[in-house]
Amino acid sequence: MDEVQQRAERQLQALEGVHARLNELSVTETSDDGRVTVDVDVTGAMTGLTLLPGAGSGQPAALADLIVRTAVRAATRVFTERADIMAAFVADFAELAGTDAPGVSMEPNGDSVRPTLQEPQSEERA
């Protein structure tokens, strides 16, 4: 019983650790010209925007494009970092759960949880 409790405590610590890392995750990205800086959170949502004089060369469409391109780069980086954190967590958690044996997956694989595309069957009429 002590072993079960210890394993559960390690799993809980792993969950708390990944939760904390994800909550702290943010990315700052600066445009190539250095005049636009965008901050995003773990979801890719913009949390900060800094514009320096000359950003977009005084053209609203150019400024909008620069902001969006910089925000997309920031979101891409944060999603990559988030995926790396989650991949490491899944591997660690599988080990803690004792499911790292070959052929054992933490992914659901039953028919009830894996949707499949079923083509509609036409009824042949005589």
Outline of this structure?
By secondary structure, the chain is α+β, with helices and mostly antiparallel strands.
Description:
It is rod-shaped, with a radius of gyration of 23 Å. It has helices at residues 2-24, 60-97, and strands spanning 26-30, 36-41, 46-51. Helix content is 48%, strand content 13%. The chain is built from 2 helices and 3 strands; from the N terminus they run H-E-E-E-H. The model is unreliable at 112-116 (pLDDT under 50). Strands 1-2-3 form a 3-stranded antiparallel β-sheet, with helices on one face. It has a domain at 27-97: Nucleoid-associated protein YbaB-like domain (Ybab, Chain: A, 2-Layer Sandwich), CATH 3.30.1310.10. The longest helix is centred in the middle third of the chain and has 38 residues, at 60-97. A hairpin with a 5-residue loop joins strand 1 and strand 2 (36-41). The protein has 126 residues and is of the alpha+beta class.
- The dominant shape is rod-shaped
| Class by alpha and beta content | alpha+beta
Q: What do the pLDDT scores average to?
A: 83
Number of helices: 2
Residue windows where pLDDT falls under 50 for at least 5 positions:
112-116
